[in-house]
């Protein structure tokens, strides 16, 4: 087994990033943040990558911050959590949202604390049936971070967001899907196959178009007029893409398209 906290494997247009501290449920240390940032930097500059898959090793997806790193001795200065968020969690969430390709999160087990919200920051979230989401922050006197207070009310509504955030109950994957927090919940036996099929489809899709969909759907503060302007501008850009021409030619030629991502 690798001693790296983050594994990166790029194949067939898919960059697979695995959080790899299974004995700590893939909770985040400073070193793991550093490795993840380096992996995402590599993904950003690799033109062969058309989809990013984020998952966890072992039985959990991610248990958020490694709390062993927060156990300061009596008398020691407390850790500045604002600095930790500013330096690590905030840039991570923004990077995932802004990557110009679909980011799929395969939630292979429990996702707690920042781990839950990093999953929700991804574009398409698929969870295995035995997985769960826990806004564990309230149990240690904190608020949901890593975008939790932004994502939860928008995805699930304020009433459910408040319950999840204030009670810290375990939300089973099936319920998360029923509440619209995630795209899909898949039976454990079919999970790996479903994830591979999904990322394979996305890696063969018109990548620039998918990146533009992200930009449009995440421009949530726009007025209708501003959103219509954005749609016009993105559509104009995409109209010049090779994939648009290929898509139309394939449709008219009654054949399957072969998208290059350009
Ligand atoms: O600090 C900052 O920089 C600010 C940002 C904060 C962001 C945050 O994420 S704060 C929230 C931190 N996370 C948590 O509070 C979750 C803590 N973990 C749990 O509540 C439970 O582990 C789970 C509900 C996630 C899973 O429970 P269970 O029963 O399936 O597993 P377990 O036995 O609790 O955990 C397995 C091992 O992983 C265990 O170690 P052991 O006993 O086998 O040696 C456990 O201590 C360890 N582990 C799990 N989560 C963490 C962890 N070790 C360190 N930090 C963790 N977060």
Distance between the termini: 37 Å
Q: How do the helices and strands follow one another from N- to C-terminus? A: EEHEEHEEHEEHHEHEHHHH
Strand content: 15-25%
> In total, how many beta strands?
10
Shape label: globular
Uncertain runs with pLDDT below 50, 5 residues or more? none
* Rounded Rg: 19 Å
Fraction of helical residues: 40-55%
Mean pLDDT: 97
* Each distinct ligand: ligand T3D
- Quickly give the structural class: alpha/beta
Number of helices: 10
The major β-sheet equals: 6 strands, mixed
Structure, described:
- With 262 residues, the protein is α/β, with parallel strands linked by helices.
- Helices cover 46% and strands 16% of the residues.
- The chain is built from ten helices and ten strands.
- It has helices spanning 30-45, 81-98, 114-120, 148-156, 158-167, 173-178, 188-203, 207-217, 224-239, 242-252; strands at residues 6-11, 14-19, 51-56, 60-62, 103-107, 110-112, 124-128, 132-134, 170-172, 184-186.
- The strands form two sheets. It has a six-stranded mixed β-sheet with strand order 1-2-3-5-7-10, with helices on both faces. The chain has a four-stranded mixed β-sheet with strand order 4-6-8-9.
- Helix 8 (207-217) packs antiparallel against helix 9 (224-239).
- The longest helix has 18 residues, at 81-98.
- The radius of gyration is 19 Å and the shape is globular.
- The two termini are 37 Å apart.
- The model has no long low-confidence stretch (mean pLDDT 97).
- The structure holds ligand T3D.
């Amino acid at each position: 087994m690798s001693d790296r906290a983050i594994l990166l494997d790029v194949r067939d247009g898919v960059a697979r990033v695995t959080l790899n501290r299974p004995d700590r449920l893939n909770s985040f240390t400073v070193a793991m943040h550093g490795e993840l940032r380096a992996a995402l930097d590599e993904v950003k500059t690799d033109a062969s990558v058309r989809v990013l898959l984020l998952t966890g090793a072992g039985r959990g997806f991610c248990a958020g911050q490694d709390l062993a790193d927060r156990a300061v001795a009596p008398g020691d200065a407390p850790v500045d959590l604002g600095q930790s968020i500013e330096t690590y969690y905030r840039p991570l969430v923004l990077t995932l949202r802004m990557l110009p390709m679909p980011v799929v999160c395969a939630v292979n087990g429990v996702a707690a604390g920042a781990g839950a919200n990093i999953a929700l920051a991804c574009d398409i979230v698929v969870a295995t049936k035995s997985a769960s989401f826990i806004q564990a922050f309230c149990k240690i006197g904190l608020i949901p971070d890593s975008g939790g207070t932004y994502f939860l009310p928008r995805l699930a509504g304020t009433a459910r967001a408040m319950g999840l955030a204030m009670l810290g109950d375990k939300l089973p994957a099936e319920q998360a899907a029923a509440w619209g927090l995630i795209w899909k919940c898949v039976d454990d036996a079919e999970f790996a196959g479903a994830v591979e099929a999904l990322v394979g489809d996305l890696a063969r899709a018109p990548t620039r178009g998918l990146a533009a969909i992200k930009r449009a759907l995440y421009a949530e503060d726009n007025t209708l007029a501003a959103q219509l302007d954005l749609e016009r501008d993105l559509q104009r850009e995409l109209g010049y893409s090779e994939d648009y021409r290929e898509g139309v030619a394939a449709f008219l030629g009654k054949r399957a398209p072969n998208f290059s991502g350009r």
